[in-house]
Amino acid sequence: MSGEVIAAMQGSQEGAPQSAGAADLKASHQSQVGSGIGTQWPTPQPLEGVKSRKRPIFEIQDAELPCLGGSRLRKAFGLQLCLTSRVAAIGEAGCAAVALLVGESAPSSGNVYRHDSLRVVRLGPQALAASRQMGCSYMDAVEAALQERPQVIVLDEALAQKDREWAETFRAILSSEAILAFRGAVVVAVADETHPLASLCTESWVASGGCLQQEPFLEVIENVLEAGSGADELMEEALAIDYCQLRHWVDIAREKEQNITLFSSVGPDGKKNLHGFLCHHMIESQGEFHIRFVFVPKPCRGTGLGARLVRWAISKANRMPEADCRWISLKAADDSLVPWYEKFGFTDMTCGQCDDEDEVWMELKNESISLDDEE
């Protein structure tokens, strides 16, 4: 259980007596979630011929992979794992590569290399179901699975399962010293790019233009206008851009208490580079997440980053309870952008008649995946 949740529970019951039974139950639940992580996981079994931790142990050079629902990616290329890899596998496309890695699927065509003795352990509700049926906690099941001494660990967010105990276990593993110190590769399979993985992952398996590629991990920095966001240098870079007046949107966000989110990745020189700028806010009276402005710097255009920013905004809304967010909206700058936004599921609400001269109001019903909706 996270510290925030524990603090909230304690605060809500401050001054109220707590029965011994309730206290024992709470302590037991914390123990089940927090135990078993440890500070060090078993050292991976050696792999024959692999003398360097940077030598590839899994590689997709150029292949076509089956995806969920029977659809196919046009191409997957440049995906690689070595023992030092820390990769975020994003969405259905990333899961297609994970399925190939763990041996659940085969490529429809193309070249894939997998070391003959590679051991991959997948950690998630389905993979650990057998241990759970024997009465083990998730952490006990994780500890047992790691005794195989795998070279690769796949940590599955499994958000669609809506399993609250696994969600807490997943967060606990991600924040543990053990996963940082692990001497093998780690792949974190997540539904979208909203999860804060920058402290762990350096690369992503992500769909771009119908292709699955390996790219530098896209760090997301939210609420950059708040003190202590750590985004001062990125904000300076954004405000220095001379072909788009981002200061205008920053001033609006400050005046109307809206949010600015920046997207960046770390270059070879270790410096963070601006990849995207997003202005958004909630219209609380209507339960609506509004995307105000999307911007991608010129050097990053044509790489699918604009689509990733829009998908991030949609995913951000998806993780909110339905009671708080029922709709996602935006204004397309002109008619030419309408078909592009329609690819994400947005609908033109103006029927060709706009109040503004050029802008087109569009909406998308929010499909909440929040665990709070299960209560």
Task: Please tell me about this protein's structure.
- This protein is α/β, with parallel strands linked by helices and 375 residues long.
- It folds into two domains: 58-216, 3-Layer(aba) Sandwich (Rossmann fold), CATH 3.40.50.300; 219-374, Aminopeptidase.
- Helices cover 27% and strands 26% of the residues.
- The protein contains eleven helices and 16 strands.
- It has helices spanning 3-12, 20-34, 91-101, 129-133, 138-145, 164-174, 177-181, 232-239, 246-256, 305-318, 338-342; strands spanning 58-64, 75-81, 86-90, 109-114, 120-123, 152-156, 185-190, 203-208, 211-216, 219-221, 259-266, 272-283, 288-295, 327-332, 347-348, 360-365.
- The strands form two sheets. A nine-stranded mixed sheet has the order 4-1-2-9-8-3-7-6-5.
- The radius of gyration is 22 Å and the shape is globular.
- 31% of the residues are buried.
